[in-house]
Amino acid sequence: MQPSSTLGRIRDGHWHENIAEAWRMPLARLALVVAAVFLATSGDWIVMAKQWWNISTYNHILLIPLIVGALVWSRRSELAKIAPEAWWPGLLGLGGAMFVWLLGTIGGVNTISQFGAVAALQMSVLALLGPRVAAGLAFPLAYMLFLVPFGDELVPALQMITAKITIALTEWSGIPAQIEGVFIDTPAGLFEVAEACSGVKFLVAMVALGVLVAQTCFNRWSRRAVFMAACIIVPILANGVRAWGTIYIAQSQGIEFAAGFDHIFYGWIFFAIVVALVLGVAWQWFDRAPDEPAIDGEALATAPSLDPLASFRMAGNPAILAASLTVLVFALWASVASRLEAQMPSRISLPQIEGWQSVPYTPELDWEPRATGADHRLLGRYRNGAGQEVDVFIATYSSQGDGKEASAANEGALVPDTAWRWMSGETAQTGAKVDQLYALGRIKRRAETSYISGDLVTGSAAELKLAAIRDRFALRSVPTTMVILSAVEQPDQDPAKAIASLRRSTGPLGPWIDRILQSR
């Protein structure tokens, strides 16, 4: 028989006998630690799997585990030339990853906790197999980050970019049009650059594909950088062309025909053509041979540059014990912190506001913000002597966590699956988050959202998350309140001025909310 490497021999028989002897125990230890990480972070993996399967933006992630497996498998013969060794600095990396997971978990920030869960697997490899093996697996390990669903945060910005590209092309093609936020009015009708039209689905998939192609087909970093720039810019521009094409066709064939054509051709067929064009243009500059080894195992096994790092080796059994204890400590910490809840009054009511009178809430089109998991919800309308009307929505939470996040996606002023559409957004001088909403082609509503948590009053979801993380990390329970002040545009009412007038009457929102919570 021929030796498979300098570290062991392959023998016929059970599958584990085909693994070089020097790798068997390290891989067994790694499997145990990976199982512990999966168990501790199982909630995040379940959430991620549901997102991969149920949300079309993330369907491409279903292929990522297969791609990572294939990348590791292609390196197996070269990896067999490296001696795996436990490495104690890797335990610090594992602790850091679990710390990130802890922060995301107690703050209810799925992206952070999911990133920590994936990073914990990466650091487990580093801790149990050592820096030389991790160097050989650097790209597959890094590519695992694409397991984390991301992109929803880009949707509003991509909507606005697509709208600007679309209006420019529409005017260039001679079609008279007017734009307001993400709505484009043309002779054929009113078009909306909705969330589904933002192009985020194709952009995130293209970035994942681009990184894979850049690594496996290019050697020069300059070419990789240019190719990745194309993978970001081209999908954004193509999405603008897609939206313009729908409007252009609608002018002669009608909106219904254009919408059907958009779904059939301008869906994945159009973007498949774009992918083919990008890869076709880039192909002539591919400078990496298909059969070129991904890594050089012998070079990594003897690389002098890795000697200083490899000197921090440790025994395998203490390493697996330390890794398991690290995972256990953070899992227990997260469990305790996630159960914290502030005391809340049994009921609250909308207060009297000087200069304003509570009037029946009878909107022309129903509007009620979403506050999933809130302990109390209030919605009412106030009118002052000048005839200004402002709708006030208050939701209070005893804690911020899974299913009870005031600033989570689809929570707050814009409720999905209703007639209301997001038109544009900004930040008010008061710090509140402003959403301009539009419905039925004529009703415009301004909604200013603020979050109050302890001494913090902000319209920033990120600031609220950081406050929740800070409090739970210190095992403090602090209530959170979401306040939305909203007004509908009328011939005799400017929504921004009406809301500003009410805020002057309530005084600072923090003390005002405190009085509401302490009133009963």
Automatic annotation (TrEMBL):
Q: Could you mention a single GO BP entry for this protein?
A: proteolysis
Which Enzyme Commission number(s) are on file for it?
3.4.22.-
Major place of residence: membrane
Q: What lineage is on file?
A: Bacteria, Pseudomonadati, Pseudomonadota, Alphaproteobacteria, Sphingomonadales
Q: Where are the transmembrane segments?
A: 30-49, 55-74, 86-106, 134-151, 225-245, 265-286, 319-336
- According to its record, how does it sit in the membrane? Multi-pass membrane protein
Could you state a single Gene Ontology molecular function term?
A: peptidase activity
Q: Which UniProt keywords apply?
A: Cell membrane, Hydrolase, Membrane, Protease, Transmembrane, Transmembrane helix
Q: Which organism is it from?
A: Parerythrobacter jejuensis
The protein depicted here goes by the name Exosortase A
Family annotation (InterPro entries): EpsH-like, Exo/Archaeosortase_dom, Exosortase, Exosortase-1, Methanolan_biosynth_EpsI
Q: Which Pfam families match?
A: DUF3485 (PF11984), Exosortase_EpsH (PF09721)
Can you say where in the cell this protein is located?
Cell membrane
- Give all residue intervals belonging to the Methanolan biosynthesis EpsI domain: 323-504
Q: Name one GO cellular component term.
A: plasma membrane
